[in-house]
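Notes for week 9. Today we move from apo structures to complexes. The key idea is that a small molecule is not decoration. When we ask for a structure prediction with zinc ion present, the ligand SMILES becomes part of the input, just like the chain. The input block below holds both the sequence and the ligand string. Read it once before you look at the output, and try to guess where the molecule might sit.
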Amino acid sequence: MGIFDFLSHAFDIPAFPWKSVVLAFTISRFLWERYLSKRQYKHYLNEKPPAVLASVVDEKKYKRAMQYARTKAHFGVLSSSFSFIISILIIRYNGFARLWNATDYSWMDRLATSNHWWSVSKAITHSCMFAFAGSVFSTIIDTPFSLYSTFVIEEKFGFNKTTMRTFWADIVKGLALGGVLLSIIIAIFLKVIIAFGDNFVVYVWVSFIVLGMVLQTIAPYVILPLFNKFTPVTDPELKSKIEELAASVKFPLKNLYIMDASRRSGHSNAFFYGMPWSKGIVLYDTLVKNQTTTELLAVLGHELGHWYMWHILIQQLVNYAVSFFHLALFAGFIRNNSMYSAFGFSGEHPILIGYLLFTSLFEPLSALISFGNNLLSRSCEYQADAFAKRLGYGDALAEGLIRLHEDNMSPLDFDRWFSAYHHNHPPLLERLEAIGYGAQTTDKTQ
Ligand SMILES: [Zn+2]
């Protein structure tokens, strides 16, 4: 008897209250997150910027930022309570089983005729239909909330740049693209599991690593252009300064683009893409417009730090290790009859459903893992800040970060627990302190 066989039998306990356990996890998580939000809300009531930044942060702007934070917090109570109720109803009334039965069509039997490697068995088409119906369902649930958030809240605070037309086009494109991608992922997942039986763990794992790399590589060329427009940077001064910075750390910069992020939102950012030997930098047009060239170079210096110190690779390796662990544990649940029947699957045991149920059982462990990921990511942020400082951009980075926070109306004052649980970046004040910026703030007033 193999290890997975052993685990399958060991965990298959008919008397175990599978459903109550998942309900308890869902309720605890909701209560815990509401508690944290409540702690954080107290900080939003304080409308004065923290004393250290009193001289650099505009008090009026900060007051408005706190109004924005409170509005979002109130809305968060509503939207998270609603999705909590939906989750509870889905678990309590066997929502997965109902959707599974509702997406069982007879044409799927007719489609599964041949035995070639490329033929799709009913197990695959049915799972894809189920997943697609699930994403349509969650889009229908989410859309009223994102409509309100985009056209009422973001609009009121001047961030919304999207039109109704773009909004709906994004939803349709997202559903279509998500349907295609999800179907590919599910088909690979199921084919590999069916083909390799109990040894599927390593094969599924490797397939997903390869698929992830392919998607990451083609996304900037195939997927992102569906949503945004990319234009090469033409400003010769900006271009040569960025090239100079990239060359100074031997970054293989090939393409430099500006993305029309302002079409949708006023929030700013920048990112890299491409192969290890040929990279592209994408700047949000909002970043170019709102920051001075030095501040923009400082932000890029920080991003280059992540690249230089292999942070992206390190975080990716950690993710690979975690997903291996996740899959290996799942292998011990794949034939767990008592888990399936607790959620309304008595005859059929679809693998995809088993995976979804297992993921909800794994939830508390996922929360711990994401906390660990946050810790790792925070330490990477400090290192990238220090890197930018070594490049000579310490003060510019600090000022750029302050401006970014001001423009995005981000709060500066955080509850320790709230921040530790939710954020993968350290709070601004802690970053400024680490950069050593606070010491010079007095000069700024002159
Ligand atoms: Zn960073």
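Confidence is low (pLDDT under 50) at residues 441-446.
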